[in-house]
């Protein structure tokens, strides 16, 4: 019984650490997006609605930075 409790405790701890790491990564991506948007505004070229949507997806973790760059490259190579 003690082994089962210890195993459960270890699994819960591992899941908690994974969740915390994911939350930290999401917070870092959001900070990056805010920085990009602020820099663009300061340059007098705020991001478009499409780019903002891409950045939001990046901040949520549904797109990687490579995915965002690839889509932006495709959009502006036309």
UniProtKB/TrEMBL annotation:
InterPro entries: VbhA, VbhA-like, VbhA_sf. Residues 19-48 are annotated as: Disordered. Signal peptide: none annotated. It holds the Pfam family VbhA. Residues 29-75 form the Antitoxin VbhA domain. This is Antitoxin VbhA domain-containing protein.
